[in-house]
Specification:
heterodimer, A: alpha+beta, four-stranded mixed beta sheet, B: 379 residues, alpha+beta
């Protein structure tokens, strides 16, 4: 039997299993509120959502390419691609989204011990434990490696003291993966990557209000939190390697967002809101030009993201390519929302009314300004491109 | 379909690059300009180019061509952009060959395509009549006369017109200027009585001409496609030209960019390499990003011309509009970051700026293509 037969048989079996096991309610497009993040305190929005997660989790298909012994599906990348295609064909929702899947999992697979993988990965795969990321601090933003949260050595454990900011969903998370300073003498080489339970004594969180209103972000405080040394990932003081690896993943996710959105075309919003003239052209000629230029760039950016994935497949992608996509995708999304705000005019200024969807236009417009700050600012991305791709000299 | 070149396409790119680097460096264009060469391109180079098979890239194998597609034509165009090669490749091998393939009868194809593929004849499209590309505005009259037509009018910006053997002329046979229907394409040989050609020496030292048709009588069998119905073949030819020009713009931009990054790594001021200054690093990194995004748009447009003509118009508009804008930025940054030496004729970077200016106007500039994109999308 050749590979082609094997893959087409896998496709048939997968389709049959999905047909039999994906509840009908899970075959309709999901809104943001329908996403399942799992965790100890997970509130399923329906029974179907719970059943779908359990079935997919028990097969390891929430994380199809992770090894079976760690709760994954053990699929080859080709099989995982087929699974994705079949899920899309049936309209199956993603059963579980989480920072554990996107970020910690890949880092543990690369840097974790066998015991760490056994302890944490299956719980991520089944959606039992929800993770958050403790990276940024009040005085360590773009210059992340200057972080000051201290972890003092107490023999078999560390004692952590300090503060993190921009901890997404810290108030809903069960565990945190966190960068701490274990050596005050060195900068990058004094950082460790640790895991601990958010229910530990001494952990507290406070939600962060943004200029756009409520947000998933929190401030997170550590007051003499005890962390067993078996929960250090990689060697003590080798945490920066793990962090760098993980940041690349984060940039890819954020950058891909610009390409993956299936939002209504800006020109469609404009045609509905502003109308067309007798020649069928948008009734605001200057805005029309700006929208056409935006849609040109949007189309080209999507193609560039597609091409980037093609390059990854044949191992020709530059490792810093994600910085390019992150930079352009963030700036593009800011432009999108400037245009949408302009299209709505004074109708897009209301902040609270039911009529305005509680200010969805101005809130999304101003929230988008953070795109070029979070996950590494646009300026940091340009530095990365200049240094690592163009190999320009100097500090 | 993957948006990276196949192994065969990569080999074609390497062979075009090696050939042009050896036979047609930028110094060759400078020599043509300084010697006021009567042809404006090198006939021996064109012959060798044809011997390599390049001229037949879009001509079917049965008619002595390579039977390849627009991706392959684009691969060659991009290298032409890198080396600023003056040659009738775009006008004859890409645009005219596409017009003949899209609208030509069997007899017309057999008469011309093998000669184009071998580089023995040069054909070119005559469409523009004013300073801006407005194909629907075609006003040159073609009046029925027996079983033929009589042409009266003038064309401008006719690529390589002063050495073309065959003009493919967009003429109005019905309707009014501004209407897409009522345009007829006809084949007019250079030798026909009443054809007057004036070479126009342009900013980029490449070749174009103004061509006047005074009571030019062409016989039956010279209409390409149907009477009044030339728009489809005209659009096919122009889209091929736009995608080709986009690829050349990409090559021009890429070359100007890599020369500029090289300069940032060798020029010292204030006691250090100017590439150490963050103000310049960010400009270079931004330009790199623009280039890579345009690269994806260009190859996608070429693939669509080959495999999915229904979506090609939209993608070609994106590619040409964006390549024009990216190349304009690239050559401006190139001259600025080279500083004073970038303004000297002795230095080569200015040649890239001049070529980009011409390619920007060719077959519709960024603004025109953006307008087309918006119209296609219904706004």
């Amino acid at each position: 039997m050749n590979d082609l037969d094997a893959i087409s048989r896998f496709r048939q079996e997968t389709r049959a299993w999905l047909e039999a096991n994906c509840p009908p309610e899970m075959r309709r497009p999901a809104g943001e509120e329908d996403q399942c993040w799992g965790g100890r305190h997970c509130q399923f929005t329906s029974d179907a959502q719970r059943v779908w997660l359990e079935r997919m989790g028990s097969r390891g298909w929430t994380v199809p390419t992770w090894p079976r012994e760690y709760g994954g599906g053990g699929l080859s990348s080709e099989e995982a691609r087929v699974l994705g295609q079949e899920m899309r064909a049936l309209g199956c929702r993603t059963p579980l989204v989480s920072f554990g899947i996107w970020m910690l999992g890949p880092a543990l697979l690369k840097f974790g011990t066998h015991e760490q993988k056994l302890e944490h990965l299956p719980k991520i795969a089944r959606g039992e434990i929800r993770w958050c990321q403790g990276y940024s601090e009040p005085d360590a933003g773009s210059d992340l490696a200057s972080l000051a949260t201290r972890a003092d050595d107490h023999g078999d454990h560390l004692i952590v003291n300090g503060q993190k900011i921009w901890t997404s969903y810290a108030d809903l998370a069960d565990w945190i993966f966190c960068l701490v300073r274990t050596d005050a003498e060195k900068k990058h080489a004094g950082i460790s990557f640790v895991l601990f339970d958010m229910a530990s004594a001494g952990v507290s969180t406070r939600p962060t209000m943004l200029i756009s209103g409520k947000s998933p972000f929190c401030e997170t405080f550590f007051d003499n939190v005890r962390v067993d040394k078996r929960n250090v990932v990689g060697a003590i003081t080798a945490g920066w390697d793990v962090a760098k690896y993980l940041l690349t993943h984060e940039r890819e996710i954020l950058g891909a967002m610009g390409g993956a959105t299936e939002a209504k075309a800006v020109s469609r919003v404009a045609a509905e809101k502003i109308g067309l003239d007798a020649d069928g052209l948008l009734a605001d000629p200057v805005l029309r030009t700006q929208i056409a230029e935006f849609e040109m760039d949007e189309a080209a950016f999507r193609l560039a993201a597609e091409r980037a994935m093609d390059l990854v497949k044949v191992r020709q992608a530059h490792p810093a390519m994600s910085s390019m996509l992150k930079y352009y995708g963030a700036e593009l999304n800011k432009r999108r929302w400037e245009l949408i705000a302009s299209i709505h005019g004074s109708d897009g200024l209301e902040w609270e009314s039911e009529r305005s969807g509680h200010g969805s236009v101005p809130r999304t417009w101003i929230r988008a300004k953070g795109n070029s700050i979070e996950g590494g600012t646009s300026e940091v991305q340009l530095n990365v491109i200049a240094k690592r791709i163009l190999e320009l000299p100097g500090a | 379909m993957s948006l990276i070149l196949t192994e065969e396409q990569g080999m074609l790119r390497d062979s075009a690059r090696d050939f042009l680097a050896a036979e047609s460096p930028v110094t060759a264009l400078r020599a043509l300009r300084d010697d006021a060469d009567a042809d404006g391109f090198s006939r021996p180079l064109w012959r060798r180019f044809a011997e390599q098979g390049f001229c037949g890239v879009l001509v079917p194998e049965a008619l002595d061509g390579l039977g390849l597609g627009h991706v392959e034509a684009g691969v060659v165009m991009e290298q032409i952009g890198h080396h600023l090669t003056a040659s009738p490749f775009l006008a004859s091998s890409v645009v005219a060959a596409t017009a003949l393939r899209a609208g030509g009868s069997g007899a017309q194809q057999r008469a011309w395509l093998p000669r184009l593929a071998k580089g023995e004849a040069i054909a070119t499209l005559a469409v523009d009549e004013g300073g801006k590309h407005r194909p629907a505005a075609t006003a040159l009259r073609a009046t029925p006369d027996g079983d033929g037509l009589v042409l009266d009018g003038a064309k401008t910006f006719v690529l390589d017109g002063h050495m073309a053997d065959l003009f493919i002329v967009a003429a109005r046979t019905s309707g009014r200027p501004g209407e897409t229907s009522g345009i007829t394409l006809c084949l007019v040989e250079r030798s026909a009585p009443g054809v007057e050609v004036e070479r126009t020496v342009m900013v980029d030292a490449h070749n174009a001409a103004r061509v006047t048709f005074r009571q030019v009588r062409v016989g039956a069998g010279t209409i390409l496609g149907s009477l009044h119905g030339g728009a489809a073949a005209l659009t096919a030819a122009l889209d091929a030209g736009r995608a080709g020009a986009a690829a050349e713009l990409l090559g021009v931009a890429d070359e100007a960019f890599s020369r500029t990054v090289g300069y940032l790594k060798e020029r010292r001021q204030f006691g250090r390499l100017i590439g150490e200054f963050q103000a310049l690093q960010h400009r270079a990194a931004h330009l790199y990003t623009e280039l890579e995004i345009t690269r994806a748009a260009v190859i996608k447009a070429q693939q669509a011309l080959d495999t999915d003509p229904a979506t090609a118009g939209d993608l070609v508009a994106v590619a040409k509009a964006r390549a024009g804008r990216t190349a304009t930025l690239a050559v401006q940054e190139a001259v600025q970051l080279h500083g004073g030496i970038g303004m000297t004729d002795e230095f080569e970077i200015g040649f890239f700026m001049k070529r980009a200016r011409v390619l920007q106007e060719l077959f519709g500039d960024t603004n025109w293509n953006l307008d087309q994109l918006a119209r296609r999308r219904g706004y």
